[in-house]
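Me: I keep going back and forth on a fold encoding question. No explanation is needed for now; the record alone will do.

Assistant:
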Amino acid sequence: MRASRTFTRREIEGLIAAGDIIVIADSNVLRLNGWKSRHPGGELVLRHMIGRDATDEINISHQPATLKSMHCYRIGKIDGEWENFIPPIQGGLFRLAETETDKEAVCSDAHIPEQTPSHNLRLDGTVESGIDVEALPTSEVLRSDDFDATSMALLAKGLCSPESYIAGRIQHEVDVDLDKYPSLDASTQREIAVKFRALHERVQIEGYYECRLSEYGKEMVRYTALFATFVFCLNRGWYFVSACFLGLFWHQIMFTAHDAGHRGITSNLTADTLIGIFIADFCCGLSIGWWKSSHNVHHLVTNSPEHDPDIQNVPLFSTSPEFFNSIKSSYYGGFIFPWDAAAAIAVTVQRYTYYPIMAVARFNLYILSWGYLLSARSRTKGRTWWTRPTEILGISCYFVLYFYVLLWRNIPSWHARAIFLLTSHLITMPLHVQITLSHWGTSTADLGPKESFAQRQLRTTMDVSCPQWLDFIHGGLQFQAVHHLFPRVPRHNLRRLQTLTREFCADTGIEYLIHDFVKGNGVVLGRLQDMADQAKILAACQSHMAATGESGLH
């Protein structure tokens, strides 16, 4: 096809229906079929952008040289403003090209079928029948100040089926965000996108992408001191203290692995990948390839229950009512996270299991790392073909050095080994809390394809405030909202960039979510408790339906 051709919306729909990976960027139509198996960020990242104007996502994620090379994939352009399709991976439906006439038509954009309760539960406290549910008596068995009073009232009269309750809660979250954030009309979201692109240009011009390597020199002093103290205490037989310093070493050095994973250190794919493999795989036993595979998707579909692997933690945790529907994960190849008896029980106490599970979360990361490296997903082509064997070598060395050389050969007793193993891993708990802090307490509502990239990121991400002298403890992860807008900006520049982000939010009317560490923990725990309460109501609905044989459709 001629690169100068102007495509209609209907023609692009037909190409997508035929299996092409079509993405819009700067009014250009890109066909990325040949890049999907070689894309360093993984194929899933591309699939989530099909049919969308991904100008912002592409610009903030790639180096200037990469952006220039994209002309090779250009097959044409569009005329005027683009209205996003919903990508096939997210449920979008597409029609093949017509053989006779190519009438301009809007695709059947049914994302996920509209969540409409079977009895038309309205959030104003009424149902289709006109019954005032606020006047209904509440069941004594279910009475709780923390529960949703409307749902209990419906349940008491047999008006609430499990399906309608879930749909009502999902819609409630959507309605809250629609009231809270700027309108989704095309002109408003276009204005936000224009202002964000102007901000990104300013970020580039003012040098925020420039990495101050001297800052990593300071980091290296801290890492070396922690590791040297670990070795010193180990040689003295102070196993508990030694384990503490090894855990602190892991905790601190992974911040640099995070930077390398985003190509924020050298801006060179090979160099940053090698840095990431050395730190994550060899020093910490965690696959940087697995992390990049899940993290890149997380950055594009943040807090989406069906698509963001970072919040898919059922049966242990649920941060969205959508999980009550047994969601199918696009990241895990269609694996269904079932909402079963185990999940119903675990989620009702998740507020209390949160910190204990975060304390041992590192062991789960070992499993996820090996699961990724042994799967076909870790095989890459092109310039990064070598990453999988290098990772397997690095992570194998870690396991030999830690479990055989360190635990078995240098620690004399099983009791001391157990203490060392648990202590070194438990010490990393604050890192896992930090990772979840910025997203588990924020919105999981899907506002559809009209929402701009910047608004989506700021709506689903929270920053953590702290004094500047404590930045090294948080490792830059406290600036998650800023980081999600500009993932390649080195973390040592994020505090300065926070000022520009605040100005952008004030100018666009998008709320900038930020709390201190203690308040942030409270927000997350509050969210976990809210989901627990909802799970209890859902269980009551299910029990009521099972006991009475009613459908809940009155």
